[in-house]
């Protein structure tokens, strides 16, 4: 995969591009840009303006230009960004060229839905193993994968070079599952169980909690209602209409 860049990558020494130190908020938006860019590529677009890409990704264009400048990507005046090149750059930065192996622990209501989702592969991830503690679930096949017992985690994680573990167990067992993942050498965890996990400093944890997202939307509903209740029914002040990704 090409790693050619517009401009230079910040911080490079001796002609070797350094890995850019990106703000977390920028990292969270890169997958949105990538999704929009893939859609543009499918429709045959070769270039896109910052305004066009920003609209497709649901962010404002100044923020997008700042985000992409962190990658050393400034586009060409009057032409915009090269769609294929920008896809390559973002996939390289996100490490999506590695096709990382993912395992899922907890094949209940949520885990079952996640395991059955075919969209991970097209985004650069291979779900290679499913684990559960319930003997009744072990052996069940979902999307061509048989559920294994959690006791097999360590062996399978090494065999399959699992990089990312997804936790979809009840909150009471999530820490024990995280400990087992860490002991098996997994250094990135996506946690769906509510609560905070304790992990070593070399392990990255992202958590997804749809209830928190609903609570944030509830705040915005509350704010809009209180503003329209003001004398004169003043329209609510919306900062920029950004659509933040869940979990960002
Ligand atoms: N993040 C979100 O937005 C969101 C949404 C829904 C559910 N959840 C959370 O996801 C988790 C799963 O929810 P659910 O409805 O699928 O629950 P569930 O009870 O249907 O499934 C949990 C599964 O985990 C398995 N399990 C329990 N302990 C285990 C262990 N130590 N090792 C391996 N497997 C184990 C169980 O056998 C079961 O199959 C819960 O923590 C729930 O709160 C989060």
Which class do the helix and strand fractions yield?
Answer: alpha/beta
Can you identify the CATH superfamily of the largest domain? Answer: NAD(P)-binding Rossmann-like Domain
Helix coverage percent: 25-40%
Q: What is the CATH class name of the largest domain? A: Alpha Beta
User: What is the overall number of helices?
Assistant: 9
Overall pLDDT metric: 86
Ions, cofactors and other bound molecules: nicotinamide-adenine-dinucleotide
Main β-sheet description: 7 strands, mixed
Distance between the termini: 27 Å
* Whole-number count of domains: 2
- What is the N-to-C succession of helices and strands? HEHHEHEHHEEEHEHEEH
Beta-strand percent range: 15-25%
Q: Spatial order of the strands in the main sheet? A: 5-6-4-3-7-8-9
| Shape descriptor | globular
| Backbone CA Rg | 21 Å
Q: Kindly identify the CATH topology of the largest domain.
A: Rossmann fold
Q: Residue ranges: pLDDT <50 for 5 or more in a row? A: 1-16
In total, the number of strands is: 9
InterPro entries: CoA-bd (IPR003781), NAD(P)-bd_dom_sf (IPR036291), Rex_actinobacterial-type (IPR058236), Rex_DNA-bd_C_dom (IPR009718), Tscrpt_rep_Rex (IPR022876), WH-like_DNA-bd_sf (IPR036388), WH_DNA-bd_sf (IPR036390)
Organism: Actinoplanes italicus
Protein name: Redox-sensing transcriptional repressor Rex
Function: Modulates transcription in response to changes in cellular NADH/NAD(+) redox state.
